[in-house]
Amino acid sequence: MAVQGSMLVALLWLLVAVPCWAQEPVDSGDREAFLPQSVLSDMEFATVSSYRGPGNNDSRGNKELPILLWWSAGLFPHFPGDTERIDCAHSSCLVTRNRKVQLYRRTSAIIFYGTDFRAYEAPLPRLPHQAWALFHEESPMNNYVLSHAPGIRLFNYTATFRRESDYPLTLQWLPSLEYLLAPPSVSLQEKNRWRQAGLAPVLYMQSHCDVPSDRDRYVRELMKYIEVDSYGKCLNNKPLPEHLEDTGTATGEDRQFMSFVARYKFHLALENGLCPDYMTEKLWRPLHQGCVPVYRGSPSVADWLPNDSSAVLVDDFPSPRELAEHLRALDSDDAEYARLLEYKDPRRVTNGRLLEALKSREWGVNDMSKPNYLNGFECFVCDQENRRLAAERAHRRDPGQHPRPQPRMANNSHMGCPLPAPGYGIVEDVPPDDGWLQMWPQDYWQSLDQAQGLNSLIQHNESDPGLLWHHIQELAVKRAGGH
Ligand SMILES: *[C@@H]1O[C@H](CO)[C@@H](O)[C@H](O)[C@H]1NC(C)=O
Ligand SMILES: *[C@@H]1O[C@H](CO)[C@@H](O)[C@H](O)[C@H]1NC(C)=O
Ligand SMILES: *[C@@H]1O[C@H](CO)[C@@H](O)[C@H](O)[C@H]1NC(C)=O
Ligand SMILES: *[C@@H]1O[C@H](CO)[C@@H](O)[C@H](O)[C@H]1NC(C)=O
Ligand SMILES: *[C@@H]1O[C@H](CO)[C@@H](O)[C@H](O)[C@H]1NC(C)=O
């Protein structure tokens, strides 16, 4: 997470802050408090720094703005302090990580970080006037609750890696087009010399071994048919040169490490979880370096590749043996290998979807001149909520003229990652004491129980999320009784 970056952005914002004292009467609907009194006292509001963003002419004072509560306080993208006024493209909000405002009438939305979202800690009772917003850019394995329809439908706004989400973060690991176009760090001639000197054609570098995609099971099979140098903790068969650290699980780009791995023609680029549009640096980094990713992760990855022949897709091959044959053929055919790197010529980057997404996204990756996506999503929610509140006010004033705004909620297309399957072979052939088998399919189905349990808590207007286990049990008993 680029939390430090967001703090810097917040500081920059503070420096250009201009106070805003304008007041505007609010509709009575906004003033009625769910609790007898605001738990954010007037004094706390007075100390909230106030500034105007570019282009926004929302003239309301802090006391009149809707509140967005960051339930995952650790991700609160402002510094210092717990509460901040944000001025977005169209409107303003107060954002806070102070959970005391949970039940307050003015708190119109709660923002969650998917990895931290736990059904047994959810803010209950769920108030009908509050929208839930989900930010989840990380792996599906971090929280399978969100991959089930009853889990994702709890949210009204999403920012996930999927293109269908409301605020998509699909290319979050790709800094820019220029990153892809960088000339190969090691020429093909040099790579061939390294091959002669004994390097394998294929690199594997993983230290996180027990993952839902079960990638090691595939690689273990692949290794029977082609040489793979494996330096990480998983399937290790070679020591790393002493001067290099194992950065197999890190995302940093240490120069020495990068030039070491760039000697390899092919990089096994296997995500830890399989889900549409879940693509990480495992894909983009070899493309940047001019190595060919041998990729498995998002089944629709071809939609985002610079050119349809710039990666080798594991799923295009019926078996590891046939993939190995293909890689060996490419290894001994320089012309064919070079074709895979043609995208380094900008004229060969012909994927309109990729170019358009890079051009139109408002957030930056390692780019201080653009907002980061935490601030971007927060503003997306702020503007949407102000629009919704205005539509509801208009409806209350004149129901004949203004219909009630339609509720919106996320669905499986915003996350919806499939049941983990073995990396190689079929689940029936996996021995019962297999570590992967004991962990991931169970985790997936237990997550469904939790999603259903939380729905039940909400339906029953419970205020204690600790009753989750009780509700899960009741649901199980009901299901058993139905048979
Ligand atoms: C600012 O106010 C003007 C006039 O009230 C309005 O036309 C314009 O759309 C507003 N701008 C934004 C960004 O809301
Ligand atoms: C990929 O590049 C090749 C060679 O330059 C070109 O012929 C082909 O049209 C490109 N394909 C796509 C889908 O961009
Ligand atoms: C938010 O989603 C819930 C379902 O999870 C729904 O009941 C509610 O009406 C939605 N709220 C808005 C403002 O769309
Ligand atoms: C799921 O949500 C998207 C918008 O986010 C919408 O376009 C789509 O129709 C929805 N699908 C279903 C089955 O409701
Ligand atoms: C839900 O519970 C809260 C208090 O916990 C109560 O104020 C509210 O009226 C309840 N809502 C419904 C629909 O029963």
Automatic annotation (TrEMBL):
Protein keywords: Disulfide bond, Endoplasmic reticulum, Glycoprotein, Glycosyltransferase, Membrane, Signal, Signal-anchor, Transferase, Transmembrane, Transmembrane helix
Pathway: Protein modification; protein glycosylation
Signal peptide range in chain numbering: 1-22
Basic and acidic residues bias spans: 391-401
EC annotation from Swiss-Prot or TrEMBL: 2.4.1.-
Location in or out of the cell: Endoplasmic reticulum membrane
Gene3D superfamilies named in the record: Glycosyl transferase family 10, C-terminal domain
The Fucosyltransferase N-terminal domain, residue ranges: 65-168
SUPFAM superfamilies assigned: UDP-Glycosyltransferase/glycogen phosphorylase (SSF53756)
Ranges for domain Fucosyltransferase C-terminal: 202-351
GO-annotated molecular function: alpha-(1->3)-fucosyltransferase activity; peptide-O-fucosyltransferase activity
Annotated InterPro entries: Alpha-1_3-FUT_met, Glyco_tran_10_C, Glyco_tran_10_N, Glyco_trans_10, GT10-like_C_sf
Annotated Gene Ontology cellular component terms: endoplasmic reticulum membrane; Golgi membrane
Protein name as it appears in the record: GDP-fucose protein O-fucosyltransferase
